[in-house]
Amino acid sequence: MDETLRQKILQLLAQHRIMTVATLREDGWPQATTVGYVSEGLTLWFLCGLESQKARNLARDNRVSLAIDHDTPDIMAITGLSMAARAQPVTDPEEARKVLQMLALRYPDAPPLPMPMPAPEEVRIFRLTPVVVSVLDYSKGFGHTDLVAC
Predict the structure, then answer these.
(1) Which of 23, 49, 77, 147 falls 20 to 30 Å from 137 in CA-CA distance?
(2) What pTM value is reported for the model?
(3) Alpha-carbon dihedral of residues 111, 116, 122, 127, nearest 10 degrees?
(4) Nearest of 1, 12, 147 to residue 78 by alpha carbon
(5) DSSP run (H or E) holding 68
(6) Rounded Cα–Cα distance for residues 137 and 83 (Å)
(7) What does the alpha-carbon distance between residue 80 and residue 49 come to, in Å, rounded to a whole number?
(8) What confidence tens digit (pLDDT) does each residue in 37-93 have?
(9) CA neighbor of 130 nearest in space, from 62, 61, 80
(10) Does residue 67 contact residue 20 with C-beta atoms inside 8 Å?
């Protein structure tokens, strides 16, 4: 992977805290939802309810598509990324605790939660490993994307 593109991807991941993640429902329809995430390198993690639709979808098919972006008043300043990834449930308690700590640190400006931070066994945590990343950067031209295989 080109180092300049890798750095752009890492920058975009660091700039944002939420993403839209799409999983496949049992009936074949995609389901897109917004979740918070943390990342380390190109690996991302998010959590959801133990019996959530996302968790059920990913138990059947671990393919995910995701998008990370933001609103801007200047159309030529649009940047973001989309990714095809494989999701794996985090089963290692140490990795789960690390992810929950990373999530708490990711929101230093947030008001206190109305409940305690969930314990690893109270949520489903997924690790996303990218397969293909598309980096969107309109400053390089309208609709410009760079496709990166991982």
Answers:
(1) 23
(2) 0.91
(3) 40
(4) 12
(5) strand 63-69
(6) 15
(7) 27
(8) 999 999 999 999 999 999 999 999 999 999 999 889 999 989 999 999 999 999 999
(9) 62
(10) yes
Task: Give the position of tokens 């308690």.
Answer: 93
Residue with tokens 């931070």: 117
Cβ-contact 51, 103 below 8 angstroms: no
Helix, strand, coil shares of the chain, percent, nearest 5, are: 30, 40, 30
CA atoms of 8 and 23, how far apart (whole Å): 25
**For residue 113, what pLDDT is reported?**
78
pLDDT at 115: 80
Q: Letter for the amino acid at 81?
A: L
- The distance from CA 126 to its chain's CA centroid, rounded to whole angstroms, is 10
Q: Which residue has the tokens 């973001």?
A: 80
Separation CA 28–CA 46 (nearest Å): 22
The full DSSP string for 93-108 is HHHHHHHHHHHHHH-T
How far does CA 29 lie from the centroid of its chain? 20
- Using the Cα atoms of residue 121, residue 96, residue 116 and residue 39 in order, give the sign of their dihedral: negative
Specify the residue for token string 């990342």: 39
Rounded Cα gap, residues 27 and 4, in angstroms: 40
